[in-house]
Amino acid sequence: MVGVIGNPVKHSLSPAILNAAFREAEMDWVYTAFETPEEKLSDAIRGVSAMGIAGLSVTMPHKAKICSLLDEISESAQTLGAVNCIVNDAGKLKGHNTDGDGFLDAVNHDAGVNVTDKKVLVIGAGGSARSIIHSLGKAGAGEVAVINRTKGKALDAVKLAGPVGKYIEESEISEVVSESDLVINATPIGMSGIGNTTNFPIEPNLLSKGQLVVDLIYHPISTPWLEALKNRGVEAHGGLSMLIFQAARAFKLWTGKEAPVEVMRKAALYEIEKKHNKETFN
Ligand code: NAP
Hints:
Layout: E1 2-6, H1 14-24, E2 31-35, H2 41-51, E3 55-58, E4 72-73, H3 75-80, E5 85-89, E6 92-96, H4 99-111, E7 119-123, H5 127-138, E8 143-147, H6 151-158, E9 165-167, H7 173-179, E10 182-185, E11 212-215, H8 224-231, E12 235-237, H9 240-255, H10 261-281
Parallel strand pairs: 1-2, 1-3, 4-6, 7-8, 7-10, 8-9, 10-11, 11-12
Antiparallel strand pairs: 3-5, 5-6
């Protein structure tokens, strides 16, 4: 038994993705959603040890608070102050963060790109941006520039990249964008159900062919921003692969086996399509 702990988690795609993986791997495992309010978090974690639950994915709002409830934390999760995956190792609960490295796996899978020596611009400085910035720094990116609506958070996030981190102001954006090999949107601008989906994180005409863009949003599968970029010949990918590859890393941590990523992607696409049809016809 494994599952995801968060609040709310009813709409999480993780049960569909991970159960498809266990079926494909012919493993007698099950993954479920544990909707847990903050005040019950420590009881829930004690329950994980007590009942021998093999592991948990952790989502909002528990990623930070859960750190102090675990027996051990990986170096990356410690640096980020956020755990998104727990492994129950014979009663000892160890916290990891698979988001940033899952993102790097996704870029490698979708675009065949290794970020070593690349110039990268990250838009946003929230939880997902922070884990990506940290992984980019570890992976040897040449420069990790960060821009964010709230300056203080960007200044804090930039440090996670180490010496290649660089804070940038709004006035510097066009120059930095034009020099970037990879641009990442780690904000919800363009997401279904959030504000105006035709708002753009940055103007598409600042980018051109030869550059790579990843938008972490996976619902919708492709945003109007990504479509506008593709029309300009820019290679642009959505966030579905990151979702799959961070889950694939959790699967490996729990089971020791490689995850069947294509089956997981199919399961996620089916659920997103179902959500989309519900929104369209309601
Ligand atoms: P978060 O921690 O809440 O951070 C949100 C970030 O977006 C912050 O930097 C925030 O700026 C910025 N932001 C929010 N609304 C904005 C607006 N209207 N204009 C400009 N900036 C805005 O969220 P998160 O967990 O990092 O998630 C960010 C996005 O990534 C979401 O779309 C989420 O669905 C997606 N995501 C995808 C995956 C995946 O696996 N593909 C995983 C995690 C998240 P401030 O600092 O100023 O508030």
